[in-house]
Amino acid sequence: MYRTGFIFDLDGVIVDTAKYHYLAWRKLANELGFEFTEEQNELFKGVSRKRCLEILLDIGGITATTEEFNRWMVEKNEDYLAYIEKMDRSEILPKVEEVLSYIKSKGMPIALGSASKNAIPILEKVGLSSYFEVVVDGNQVTKAKPDPEVFLMAAEKLGVPAQNCVVFEDAVAGLEAANNADMVSIGIGDAQILTAADHVFNNFEEMDISFLDRLMQEGN
Ligand code: BG6
Ligand code: MG
């Protein structure tokens, strides 16, 4: 049987941590004296912490010294860690575990492909680590999404050719990374925003399990 590699983004796909990233960035923006909207936060999805701070400072028209820049990176992460400290299984997005479990039951390999440096502790907190054969996170990649590095590395570690991999993503940058990797891109979220995706579902509840069968049979 054809081996399809299933690669999942973490934030906003498996768990709803996008809201905590937003709250932490908004707190910093407010401290620096400007507003940061949810609409602007779309640009932050899938993007590395460092790049997010650069964009945030651009939005606020602020020029930071290296010392300030590094301090604000730490401050944002500490606030974010405080938000996620008490995370548990209740924060897994609807039907995610069913999807992971179904893919595993079919013997297909699963990887995580995330820009976050906090990915492993989050997977552990919500109790989903055992589904993932491979984890590629922000500690391993050098090029941020939309560069395909994170997904190509995941495919290589899974031992599956890139063209036989499927990526689930909630971020525009992540879908572009999947497309750049020549993988099937599946958007989870608003179809009007996620126009780069090959297929889009508002959430996993809207995706019929038979869709996964099709991905496996077609070998994409
Ligand atoms: C991505 C998020 O998964 O991880 C981004 O979508 C975030 O919003 C990035 O900036 C980096 O996360 P962390 O946990 O390393 O700050
Ligand atoms: Mg995401």
Key features of this structure:
9 helices; globular; binds 6-O-phosphono-beta-D-glucopyranose; binds magnesium ion
Would you write up a description of this structure?
It is a single chain. Helices cover 44% and strands 11% of the residues. The protein is of the alpha/beta class and 220 residues long. β2, α6 and β3 form a beta-alpha-beta unit. It has 9 helices and 6 strands, in the order βαααααβαβαβαββα. A 6-stranded parallel sheet has the order 3-2-1-4-5-6. The site of 6-O-phosphono-beta-D-glucopyranose has 18 residues, from α3. 6-O-phosphono-beta-D-glucopyranose binds next to α3.
Determine the strand fraction and express it as a percent band. 5-15%
- Order of strands, main sheet, comes to 3-2-1-4-5-6
How is the biggest beta sheet arranged? Answer: 6 strands, parallel
Question: What ligands does this structure carry?
Answer: 6-O-phosphono-beta-D-glucopyranose, magnesium ion
Q: Any low-confidence stretches, pLDDT <50, length ≥5? A: none
Shape: globular
- Helicity, in percent? 40-55%
Radius of gyration: 17 Å
Give the SSE string: EHHHHHEHEHEHEEH
**What is the average per-residue confidence, as pLDDT, rounded to a whole number?**
95
Number of helices: 9
Structural class: alpha/beta
Cα separation of the termini: 13 Å
Beta-strand segment tally: 6
